[in-house]
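Quick one: structure tokens for this chain, please?
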Amino acid sequence: MIPPYRGRFAPSPTGPLHFGSLVAAVGSYLDARAQGGEWLLRMEDVDIPRNVPGAADDILRTLTAFGFEWDGAVLYQSKRVEAYGDALARLQRSGLAYGCACSRKEIADSAIHVAIDGGLAYPGTCRNGLPAGREARAWRLHVGNERLTFVDRLQGEVVQYLERDVGDFVLRRADGLFAYQLAVVVDDAWQGINNVVRGADLLASTPRQIWLQRCLGYPLPAYAHLPVAANAAGEKLSKQTMARALCTDMVAAELLRALQFLGQAAPGDLARAPVAEVWSWARENWSFEAIPHRPLIILPV
């Protein structure tokens, strides 16, 4: 039986965890524990070419050093390819997924406008059938031309018109790998995730996931998108922006910093306390309402 609250943390093994990763982990972990729920750990390693050898094990060691305790075994997306294939087959049979022969250059040449997440909105070139003599390179999901809305627990009402703002999006890429959008939706449903707490950098992709959940007949989780930690230039902390890896020699101080970033009134002397004491304070004093209702916060230099 699925508990009333089941959340998850889902890092990608493309490099070590950094402060932005810690914020997402702390926020999702404490939201689950405060409601007596479960917190699952998933390794989103389906994009195999981007995985860094040894990064998954390093992530597990770091989470353990920081005192996180997850429920059940770690789920690895790389071992779930058959499930993603089954979901794609269902969408193909229902006529919602279609083959696309377009190259990136062709999409760039024919796209009418930039998508909401900074990419190019697919113009629907292959929606009504492949051009003569062409073969499918990728598979896309047909999206509806409707107003899709949901209310995020932190960011409020989110509105997208998928056809205009994104276009029919990819489910399986030209290289044969399954896309993040399909994998995350299939895994959330399979694991019974009913509360998703993650960074606001993923806010724009949530309507696509909701559309896909509807197409597959999956239940819709509640969503909360935490503020993203950014550098002085306003760039999200990431491997690309040279974010510093978490230091396991300063666990209490890093946890305190994450708690304060999330608006928690944690006392400064916790920076020198045992890790168990930091978590004890955090669980007893966690306030979801205190989290800033902002998509991005620039860290002080």
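The longest strand covers residues 38-43.
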